[in-house]
Every structure is written in structure tokens, then in C-alpha cells.
Specification:
Elements (H helix, E strand, L loop, with lengths): L1 H22 L9 H9 L6 H14 L5
Length: about 70
């Protein structure tokens, strides 16, 4: 069962990381890094990276190894 949660966390981490990389394209428009952080704070898909890392961590540490 832990491998299922590991893959769910991996998928969420990839989706969140790709979203953050795509949103880096707003920096050349003339916005600074602080504006970028303010922008991604309001986007729900940017939190997928943190949720995915949390799920991966929980699946690795809290499930017994087989």
C-alpha cells in the first residue's frame, strides 16, 4: 500500500514542480522574484509540490518496510 501513496506523492510533486517552472516565465515580463513569489502564493497548483513531498515522506517513514 505504501507504493501507491509513494506514486501519488510523486505525481503531485511532478505536477507542482512543473507548474512552478512554467510560472518562472513571468519573470522576463518585468516582474521581480518577490512578485513571482506573491504570484505563486495565490495559485493552488503551486502547493502540489509541498503536498507531494509530504506524502512521499510519510509513505517512506511511517509505513513498515516489507
Amino acid at each position: 500500500m505504501w507504493i501507491f501513496w509513494f506514486f501519488v506523492g510523486f505525481g503531485l510533486t511532478v505536477a507542482g514542480g512543473v507548474s512552478l517552472i512554467i510560472y518562472l516565465n513571468i519573470i522576463p515580463v518585468g516582474l521581480g522574484f518577490v512578485d513571482y513569489l506573491i504570484f505563486i502564493k495565490d495559485k493552488p497548483e503551486s502547493y502540489l509540490l509541498l503536498v507531494g513531498v509530504l506524502i512521499i515522506t510519510c509513505s517512506c517513514f511511517f509505513y513498515p518496510s516489507d
